[in-house]
Amino acid sequence: xxxxxxxxxxxSLGAAGRYGISLLTINLWGTRFPWGTLVVNMAxxxxxxxxxxxxxxxxxxxxxxxxxxxxxxxxxxxxxxAFSMETIAAGQAGMRFQAVMNILVNNLGGLALTVMGLWIxxxx
Length: 124
What we know:
Elements: H1 2-29, H2 35-58, H3 63-77, H4 80-92, H5 96-122
Helix pairs in contact: 1-2, 1-3, 2-4, 4-5
């Protein structure tokens, strides 16, 4: 139960951060491009890489802090950061086919399922 609380706490902060960044980018740059999503995805990718790199090198993060920051905060801020880290890890482990497939399936499959969901949801 304690682990779940750490994830929930981080998740609530990440969700609030995502919302705040979306509002900020709309105020700064308008709505002609999804700047908020881009900003949180890029920031999340940088932060997950930084946190994993630091935690391996200096044992900076306790298991509770990993749950709070990586699983909770970054998970709610963006799942793109987890996708990015998993793809990089597969490539570093020599599983290049898995890394490429992860990119293709997540992107093309995600787009296709979004279209399918929109189509099913709009059927009268």
